[in-house]
Amino acid sequence: MTDTPRCSVIVVSYNSASYLPQCLSALERQQGVEADIHVVDNASSDGSADLVRRQFPRVRLIANLSNVGFASANNQILSPGTAEFYALVNPDTVPSPTALATCVRYLEGNPKAGVAATRLVHPDGDLQRSSHAFLGFRNLLGETFGVHRLLPVLRPLSSLYMPWFDHGRIAEVDWVDGAFLVARGEVVRAVGGLDPGFFMYGEEMDWCRRIRRAGWSIVFLPEPAVIHVGGASSGPIAGPMFVENLRGRLRFLSKHRSSLVVMAARATIAVSVLLRFAWREAQALGLSLMGRPVPEPLRLRLTSLSAAARWVLRGLPL
């Protein structure tokens, strides 16, 4: 009889108190694997750390005094660790009881696989696209102008989201979302943890790129599904997080693509942000002149684009 594998689970929390109970309860109920659960709290102001201390005494808590970002928080467990497997789990996920064991068992049986991740779904059961091709100029262009939604058959332009991808089969992919994934400990020690230069967004794409370059594969598993709310921590600070998403895109390109691609990407992002901001401002102004209130979705979009426009006008600093 084989020993039950152990997996060091990392949950990075930032103002996630409303989601942590479901997530941590689901992790404590995992079957077929010994889960050593860590919560790294990034100076939440909603009592997340106290909730963990009070309701989950078996969970190991690190309460940071400031928000060090997603990558650096994960590295607090990844960098010094000697675990056989590591799981990155977002606080707004609810993993099914066999999610960890399924990924771990796949990695045990496939020594060239470095990372395994299962299918993500919204709380209503609808699919979340979590497998992607690496970012380049063409699919950045497609994302910027919504080609993946309008003309998904144009694969070079829509490959960042791979709308054609079959989520019903096991497949090797370029990279997977960091909401729920399991990495081999050997891989972490060989390539290092997440790049702390990514505050939030883009770090898992960069990590998977480095892992693949080191000779391991990234594997998508269709079952079991993991519920993922998405944007739970970043929603209330949509403006700064939209900027971080764009900054993460540029940082990835700066690390892995040519200087010509980076120049073209910076120009594309700058023009797109400024045009979209001007258009949304015009929409809001038109509604105001007609005496009509600005709808909440438009207001939130304006908040994000306003923050991005200020970042562009500062020269798109990384």
The best one-word shape is globular
CATH architecture of the largest domain: Alpha-Beta Complex
In the CATH hierarchy, what is the superfamily of the largest domain? Spore Coat Polysaccharide Biosynthesis Protein SpsA, Chain A
Domain count, please report it: 2
Task: Characterize the biggest β-sheet.
Answer: 10 strands, mixed
Helical element count?
Answer: 12
Number of strands: 12
Written as H for each helix and E for each strand, in order along the chain, the element string is: EHEHEHEEHEEEHHHEEEHHEHHH
Average predicted confidence as pLDDT: 94
What is CATH's topology name of the largest domain? Answer: Spore Coat Polysaccharide Biosynthesis Protein SpsA, Chain A
First CA to last CA: what distance?
A: 51 Å
**Cα radius of gyration in angstroms:** 20 Å
Strand content: 15-25%
Q: What top-tier CATH class of the largest domain fits best?
A: Alpha Beta
Helix content: 40-55%
Low-confidence stretches: none
